[in-house]
């Protein structure tokens, strides 16, 4: 046991808190026994929704706990990582246990933390780019209860399965490994949340994810309506950038977001826009391909493209002439992305790899690449912007960098050279085109 844990032990009695939990639970059970059937039905529904994290019901249950403690004069003993005694009792009996302070941003460190891992009884949170062991310990019995709590949000998931992926009411994604998939007593829960909500390009520049000088450039690019792909590995910042890019989109245009999971709630980000959201993956996504292609949409978002079905839909949609489309994909290289997409499409649907690559390069205009820094994983960087086009001389697919991040110099290097396709797109937006070229020239000159 380390010094930090020793200090925490001195501030509260673990056995005393255990007694408080037992006393409150006993009182709740006594109230249940004397309540009417109709009241029991209402209470069951309230507790279920509270367990699932609905704020109104959470507060209602916490109020009941606070009342019981006050009426019975119970000692208000609780662990220091909770903000109040009713918060502590609720989360230990109904909620997320020791994960709750992280999930609900109870401290400044937790507000900035994008992920947490529960490995066995040990909780680690990503703080300032490092996985830091927390003082909370969650025993096996409580972890099993936590697992049941989390699976309430997804009734289709079977408790005995060794793998689950669920989403909490507040948007947190949880991946669970247990049973035969893990070592005895070393079950795993991985929690991910977005810490950059309601952000603008200016906020990313302040975080040095993008250069300050590029803010106006990106706003103009949104107006022009390029078909763009945001690429990078897990936790590289591509989905955050997609959210911000999309937040500048014309609210009068009709959009469709196709996601393989419900991680992004576009109704909260663009609630004033006629934007539909479909959650489907694999065969489910393939079965609705025709209705999607017949849809009357000004643009389409494809989140987390990762298989042949998603890649093929992206290609078919953009082949119809749809502009302003955006997609995210896991890849480390814009240059290899068309080949990777084409190979997966060919393997499932047939066709010639070269022809498919050509279509991908024709249909998508720009690829933005992101990665997290090795020395501090909380820092994300835009590392390259690549133009796709068909070389008029050779007739072959080609790419050209607009920007590349130089890691050795810790600076972004810009190039004002525009591909033939980029020039053609900008000709249909002369005002924005002139401004974009002017900004690129200044950026190139400043970084020589």
As a percent range, the share of strand residues is: 15-25%
pLDDT < 50 stretches: 1-11
The CATH homologous superfamily of the largest domain is named: P-loop containing nucleotide triphosphate hydrolases
Please give the CATH architecture of the largest domain. Answer: 3-Layer(aba) Sandwich
What is the name of the CATH topology of the largest domain? Rossmann fold
Mean pLDDT value: 88
The class by helix and strand makeup works out as alpha/beta
Number of helices: 19
CATH class of the largest domain: Alpha Beta
Q: What gross morphology would you assign? A: elongated
- Which sheet architecture does the biggest sheet show? 9 strands, mixed
Number of domains: 3
Give Rg in angstroms: 26 Å
Q: Largest sheet, order of strands side by side?
A: 9-8-10-11-7-12-13-14-15
Find the count of extended strands (DSSP E, 2+ residues). 15
In whole angstroms, how far apart are the ends?
Answer: 54 Å
Helical fraction equals 40-55%
């Amino acid at each position: 046991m380390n010094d930090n844990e020793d200090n925490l032990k001195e501030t509260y009695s673990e056995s005393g808190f255990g007694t408080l939990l037992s006393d409150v639970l006993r009182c709740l059970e006594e109230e249940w026994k004397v309540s009417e059937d109709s009241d029991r039905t209402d209470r069951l529904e309230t507790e279920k929704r509270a367990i699932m994290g609905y704020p109104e019901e959470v507060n209602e249950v916490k109020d009941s706990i606070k009342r019981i403690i006050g009426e019975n004069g119970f000692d208000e003993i609780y662990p220091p990582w909770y903000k109040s005694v009713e918060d502590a009792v609720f989360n230990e009996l109904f909620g997320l246990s020791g994960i709750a302070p992280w999930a609900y941003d109870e401290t400044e460190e937790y507000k900035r933390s994008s992920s947490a891992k529960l490995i066995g009884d040990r909780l680690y949170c990503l703080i300032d780019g490092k996985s830091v062991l927390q003082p909370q310990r969650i025993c096996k019995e409580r972890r099993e209860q936590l697992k049941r709590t989390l699976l309430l949000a997804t009734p289709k998931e079977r408790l005995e399965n060794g793998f689950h992926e669920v989403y909490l009411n507040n948007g947190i994604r949880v991946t669970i490994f247990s049973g035969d998939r893990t070592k005895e007593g070393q079950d795993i829960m991985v929690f991910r949340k977005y810490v950059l909500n309601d952000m603008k390009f200016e906020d990313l520049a302040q975080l040095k994810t993008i250069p300050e000088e590029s803010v106006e450039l990106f706003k103009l690019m949104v107006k022009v309506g390029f078909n763009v792909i945001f690429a990078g590995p897990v936790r590289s910042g591509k989905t955050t950038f997609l959210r911000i890019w999309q937040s500048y989109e014309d609210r009068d245009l009709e959009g469709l977001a196709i996601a393989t999971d419900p991680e992004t709630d576009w109704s909260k980000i663009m609630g004033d826009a006629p934007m539909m959201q479909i959650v489907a993956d694999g065969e489910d996504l393939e079965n609705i391909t025709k209705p999607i292609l017949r849809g009357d949409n000004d643009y389409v978002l494809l989140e987390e493209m990762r298989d042949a079905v998603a890649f093929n839909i992206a290609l078919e949609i953009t082949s119809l002439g749809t502009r302003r489309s955006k997609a995210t994909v896991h890849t480390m290289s814009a240059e290899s992305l068309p080949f990777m997409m084409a190979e997966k499409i060919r393997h499932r649907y047939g066709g010639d790899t070269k022809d498919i690559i050509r279509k991908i390069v024709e249909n998508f205009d720009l690829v933005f690449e992101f990665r997290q820094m090795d020395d501090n994983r909380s820092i994300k960087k835009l590392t390259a912007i690549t133009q796709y086009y068909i070389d008029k001389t050779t007739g072959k697919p080609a790419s050209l960098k607009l920007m590349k991040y130089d890691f050795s110099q810790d600076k972004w290097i810009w190039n004002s050279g525009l591909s033939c396709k980029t020039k053609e797109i900008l000709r249909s937006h002369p005002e924005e085109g002139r401004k974009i070229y002017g900004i690129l020239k200044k950026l190139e000159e400043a970084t020589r």
